[in-house]
Amino acid sequence: MCKMRRRHLLGIFVLLKYCICGDVQDFDGNITDVVVSKSKLFVLTDHRLHQMRHDLYEEKRKDITNVPDLNRVNILVPFDANGTLITCGTFEEGYCEVLDINDITHSIYCESNILVGPKQNEKYVAFIAGTSSSRYFVVGKKGHDKSTQDNRYSVVTFWNTLESQFGRIFSKINSDGSDAVIKSTFGDVEFIDGFQRVSPSESYLFLNTKTDNERKVLVLRMDSSKERKIDIIKSLQASTIRCCSDKVRPVLVASTVIPSVNDVIWAGVFSSQNQEDPENALALYDISNVRGQVKGFCANSGNCDSESGSGLQPLSVVFRYSSMSAVAATRIESWIVLFIGTSDGQLIKLMLDERYTPGCPIMLYKSNDERAVLPRMHFDPVDFKHIYIALKKQLRRVSVVPCAKYSTLKDCRAALDPFCGWCVNTLRCSTQYECSKSSWLSTPKNSLQEMLFYFQVWPEKTSSKITLRIFLSLESTENPAFSCTFTTESVKLCDGSDLRAVFPNCSCSFSDQLIYTTGLNISAEVALGEQKIKEKLELKNCLNIKDNSPGASYTQCVQCISSGCHWSSSSQRCEWADGPGPKLNIQDACNVNVQMEYEKPEILSLEPNKVSFHGRNRVSLKGRNLESVNKIRITGDLDCVPKESPVFDRSSDSLRFHIPPSETKGTVKVCVVTPDDRCHGNSIITYSSQPSCTGIQPTVSWKSGGRKIHVQGSNLEFVESVSVNNRIQDQTQYNTSSGDMWFHSPECYYYYQCRSITLHVGNSSLNYEYLSYESDPVFIGFTTFQVANDLQVNIKKRADMLHLSVNEVTVTGLQGYQQYQCVLEEIQSKAVICKIKGESGAVTAVDELKINVGYFSTSLRQERPEYLGFFSIVFSLVFVFFCLIFLILLSIFRA
């Protein structure tokens, strides 16, 4: 069976090697699975298996489908320790094949009539488990073989991987003759993830279950250190995983294990499956001590009706986002770095400190369309500096260490990326590995929420001096060259013993008289090797920061903290700091109750409220009490710093503003800001992919312009205007039913200048299609004849390439002072036919026609009948003849 299949089904051939330019590879079929071994990358599409190097250089490919037999490969597992790749498929009754991991065209073993993988389009989990001397092939899938004896399904199966094992290769038989399976009374299960931990040797599987009235997420744990399959299965422990405190999310979307030394920390993406509130949650769990049993799951011969143990609760919910579809993780010392794929084609990087506090999300990749990232993402196993993501027919190798794009120490530190730090000797942002024999400055642990630079001031208790201290949120691998300078009006503020600099802090003491009078503007410069950080500081007498106007507490608090002073929340006043202390956060410290002197603004509507990630100009906001609004604040799940946009055309019930572009896709919250910096209202804007154009119709216009050009594609409602060769713009119209957009072609007399069509979206321009131009249509003349009460008009025209339609041409007949509409019936290559309807009496003739085609117009006079033309010619010839006779006779008479 396998030989026949290999001969007829697996059309094997070796490709000529070619170079892949860039970290992206497109395939001719949809990607269904991607797996990574120590030395190779394997990509499975719906009809081929591709063997690639880690740099996406394709080495081999192998056909896996044959249309009459409808084979589908549904299992793909690398077995590095054995140097093989295990594939299983659906051909006939099912099969499994062992391929050489270095040459997939070389089949080592094949076995037919064995159904290991899932049925069509069902999720599964498969991995290698066991000890170094006894490896098994674990497959978790939805059960279809319900036992007639106990009404249970086989959902997890342990298969042999070697001929030397009991029952030989691809056998699921235990030594006692029973099947090595875990059974369930649930018919509807969906496996999401599974893996084996090496030390200690434990296997984990994660799945969703569904009954008529309940959904659950479960984890199954087994002791893989045992030699026999039956003993591994008997060690089964299970627990329910619960998420989350704000609302129940009973469906697991994707998951990953986080590398750890002692505990087993696991991250899962959970969904509520609620379309009205689609926000997913990413939560962390300690799954080291999964104990007990979940009702409905047991070893083959066990009792599936009992339940014990308690469910798992999250250690922390670290991220909420509506479109999360994939997750992967790595660890750098105490930092956890999460990589999140989304269903709209984004790859997001999120850092967590040792207390699981998240930093600012970083966008690593954003697709121009809505292709989802497949749930399983893999790191390059060589250096973990790249991650592989699959998007429909495309595989990308994305760098997870984008340090080189940060050109200054400030930018490098602001990225809050534990992969990146500032190399003092090379003066560039790099990884620690790339910064040898030099101080490497990086973000301190537990400092994700702190800025690089802040300062405090306080009076010395034993002298009449003020101390200014600067704090740098940095740590270094070595002791870097470090110095500070403080100047005011180009004069050094302090030196000698009054100036102290010990990395990462420095301080300056000066006379209190300098600040008690009018305040002090200081220029502070911190030098780290040759890299300098400069800051302008405005110091004030903390006790003099007062504002007695009503509702001024918030403004006073902001001024206080910005001047390095201490804000007392109890007395609601500014005070001197009592020596160095933790940095105060304005948002937390200045959360005061302010009495508003204006009517609270309200947001009623936003139009439009869905835009591309390029933003949108002149958005209309309607509401109440908007006259006090001075800007719009936009905050997204991926934004640590909100975006702000000024307002214009403001009245009490409406205003306009520009939606700024976004690095990410998804929903953001919008509020209106008043002069006291308070935010009011809560509306939603959705950022989506940019417009894409698949074609235009028609593709040609006449030179005077005005032809209706339809643009086909997706997200075309985001287009604000169109230009042809960036010269002439025209407002666009969007058809909500057809999803296409149209505009009128502009006038163009120099054809070579009017070809490219540019779509304008926000402040960005997207070049797509080409529009051809031809001469204006030429109409030669017309004739008429009566058809009952109607007058048919036949207009002669020159043949052209315009392919005019009847709705593009308007014809008006003139008879004296009367005008008649001529209804178009047909346009031929050399003729236009229309009729003037005689609804209120017969129209017998017209003297003139006015013809409009877009912006082009022309007039035609009535053509004379052909016989009149003939007699006119004859009369002219006779007249000429008599003139000649007259001239001849006249010359004879004179002679």
Q: What would you say this structure looks like, in words?
A:
- Residues 31-383 form the Sema domain.
- It is found in: Membrane.
- It comes from Carassius auratus (Goldfish).
- The protein is mostly beta strands and 895 residues long.
- Among the domains are: 453-589, Immunoglobulin-like, CATH 2.60.40.10; 602-688, Immunoglobulin-like; 692-774, Immunoglobulin-like (Sandwich); 779-863, Sandwich (Immunoglobulin-like); 866-895.
- Helix content is 7%, strand content 46%.
- The strands form 16 sheets. The chain has an eight-stranded mixed β-sheet, with no helix packed on it. A seven-stranded antiparallel β-sheet has the order 63-64-67-66-65-68-69, with no helix packed on it. The chain has a five-stranded antiparallel β-sheet with strand order 1-6-5-4-3, with no helix packed on it.
- β43 (566-568) and β44 form a beta hairpin.
- It is globular, with a radius of gyration of 39 Å.
- The termini are far apart.
- 37% of the residues are buried.
- Mean pLDDT is 86; it is low at 3-21.
SSE topology:
Blueprint: H1 2-8, E1 12-13, E2 24-26, E3 31-36, E4 41-45, E5 48-52, E6 58-63, E7 73-79, E8 84-89, E9 95-100, E10 103-112, E11 124-131, E12 134-141, E13 153-160, E14 181-184, E15 189-197, E16 202-210, E17 215-223, H2 229-234, E18 237-241, E19 251-258, E20 265-271, E21 280-286, E22 297-299, E23 316-321, E24 324-332, E25 335-342, E26 346-352, E27 362-366, E28 378-379, E29 386-391, E30 394-399, H3 409-414, E31 421-423, E32 428-430, E33 440-442, E34 453-459, E35 465-472, E36 475-476, E37 482-488, E38 491-492, E39 499-502, E40 505-511, H4 513-516, E41 520-528, E42 531-539, H5 553-562, E43 566-568, E44 573-575, H6 586-589, E45 602-607, E46 610-612, E47 616-624, E48 631-636, E49 643-648, E50 654-659, E51 666-673, E52 679-688, E53 692-697, E54 700-702, E55 708-714, E56 721-724, E57 728-731, E58 733-734, E59 741-744, E60 756-761, E61 764-770, E62 772-774, E63 779-787, E64 790-797, E65 809-815, E66 818-827, E67 831-836, E68 848-853, E69 856-861, H7 866-894
Parallel strand pairs: 46-52, 54-62
Antiparallel strand pairs: 1-6, 2-30, 3-4, 4-5, 5-6, 7-8, 8-9, 9-10, 11-12, 12-13, 13-14, 14-22, 15-16, 16-17, 17-18, 19-20, 20-21, 21-23, 24-25, 25-26, 26-27, 28-29, 29-30, 31-32, 31-33, 33-36, 34-35, 35-40, 37-38, 37-41, 39-40, 41-42, 43-44, 45-47, 47-50, 48-49, 48-51, 49-50, 51-52, 53-55, ...
Signal peptide: 1-21
GO molecular function, one term: semaphorin receptor activity
Subcellular location: Membrane
